[in-house]
Amino acid sequence: MPEDPPRPLATVAGARLHPLTAHLLGFGLVASIHVGLLLARLRGKTEPKVWGLAITLVLGQLLALALCSGAVQALWLRWLKGVRQPYVVLLGFIVTLPVCALLLADDLSGPASRLSVLPPSVALWLLAAAPALALTLGLAVARYAARGYWRLAPLLIGLAIVPTSLVILGDDYDGLQLLGTLFASLTVAQALFDWRLPAKLGAPLEGSRLRVVRYAALAVLALFALGSVLAPPTNELLVALARQPSAVLLRSIAELRMEAAPQPGADPTEWYRDRSGLPPVPASTPRLTSEDPIVLMIGVDSLRWDLFEGDKHRADLPNLFAMKERSVSFREARAPGSSTATTFSAIFSGKSYSQLYWVSHPERKLEVFPHHDDTPRFPELLRDAGVSTVSFEPTGWILERFAIVRGIQEENELRTGKGYPKSVTIMPKLSARLKQADDKPLFIFTHLLDAHSPYNAAGKKATPYEGYIASLGKVDGELGKLRKQVEQLGLTGRTSYVVFSDHGEAFGEHDTTFHGKTLYEELLRVPLFIEVPGVPAREVSEPVSLMDLGPTLLDLYGVDTPSSFFGQSLVPFLRGEDPKLTRPIVAEARLMQAMLLPGPKKIIYDTRSKAIELFDLSKDPGELQNIYGEGPESEEAHALLRSFFEAHTHRAPGYQVPYRKW
After folding, report:
1. DSSP 458
2. For labeling, which of 106, 302, 344, 519 is most exposed (least CB within 10 Å)?
3. For domain 270-648, is the CATH number 3.40.50.10470?
4. Global pTM?
5. 506 vs 522: CA distance, rounded Å
6. Distance between CA atoms of 357 and 651, rounded to whole angstroms?
7. Regarding predicted confidence, which is higher, 357 or 633?
8. Is the separation of the CB atoms in 171 and 243 below 8 Å?
9. Residues near 364 by Cβ (< 8 Å), separated by ≥ 6?
10. Residue among 590, 624, 519, 514 at smallest CA distance from 169
11. Higher pLDDT, 356 or 142
12. Predicted pLDDT of residue 622
């Protein structure tokens, strides 16, 4: 049957709500949940003025979404008046599908990459079809099927979606959060759409004067919504909202704003300029290792530095503590990223994430890899210098064909199923390879993932942190067995150990868990132990980067370091010297950038939300007090970071540095 034409903004007694009114009510109910959760997260952690403005901004942006969706539905009903409902639903799905594909492109990249038989775009659209269909059918049921008291069902379902998604998804899935908010608000709006006001409430809404009031109120709401979208928020607000899942539109709006990079006041060093024409850095002399060295490069996933401060975990990790005390230990080492791919690509290539060229890979179609980037990886240089290069690879992608690493002659791909192989499987294979060692120089790389989430390598424990420590205990035991094997084979005098972590792990710091989400110290500051035969143990407090590992390993084998590497050899520290390294220490994750500065201070810039944070690590090691804007050094720090990445970001026609979730 044909629909009654919508009445302006509200209704007369007994008539249905206008689409704008229904949408404003629906989004208002959903917004109240957002505001409640936002208030719970921000109150007590920020000043009342800040969380008050944050709530105002979020409300304004949700209001803008409500006005747009209400206007679209009003036009939709007018254009499709008289069209049969099944065709309306089909057309709704056709319109909704590209919206879902656009919003969920980043969130679906991991699952879509596993559909290896499909082209990337097809995999994305196939996965986006499920939420698009759910959204379309859910709205159709709420709009056409539910009647009477059954309209309470879609209303309650819509209201339940918001807190569920905010709690479960947290700050990790921007697209899904926005889609969940949109779905919930639209569902509630449809449930309210055909409700009819009682006569006592509807009668006062009649009359031309009140109609003018309604239009005036709509104009005020529209201006408020427009201001929340167009007015650039302060940095304090951006920082407060950057990791709040309730701020579902914050990044989408911020990314539309153009921002000029500030210029540094002083002329920066050579590291901030093009280095392509510089000569290679020669290996130091005399050689620190024997002529036939064996270097075991062992990454331990998710290992935090602070586990080695004090003796709390000495009994849990006896072999790692013993290695630290035998090694040159770098207490201020930072990873170049807070996820495995970002860190290892930087270690092997000597370039940070945005300096490399990342594109979709045929085997993991919606995940990007640097397989078309021609930057030399240090194992290639070792191989060309006559070093046997070997890897025992557990992830399935730190492999030659994905080009995170290149130059491995004996590549042992160990992952065969969904889970990662554990150290108890990997280390015996590595030990067996050591038995085959001849008198040639040998380099062996592996990465041990026992401590990766869900922290169950040692069985289920009472808390995630207990499971994490117990899982690291498994790695520790295998490292102890490896050392005994080296001794039994008589290789102690030739064998050096480089043990480090690709990133730390968060257990509630900055309201986050896991890794890859931020660039705070709990994720970037990692252990780095280098043990070389005959080199006395010491602890180094000079800040270093894991990007220094490439030049260090090349130096240990007597190979020159190309100027493309943005790290410097740590061999002088192994010699007992205390050099002052000059290259910047930078890190990246999810299009966020960080730089360690003298002081020590650290600046973090989110290129998507435009939020900037500056911390004085000497006074605030937990990074709780953002001092950006409290002096001229703030702008200088921002300018240094931006000028480094402006100078060294990979550029090609049509290319933009892609977002990579992990």
Report:
1. T
2. 106
3. no
4. 0.86
5. 6
6. 8
7. 357
8. yes
9. 113, 114, 116, 397, 402
10. 514
11. 356
12. 95
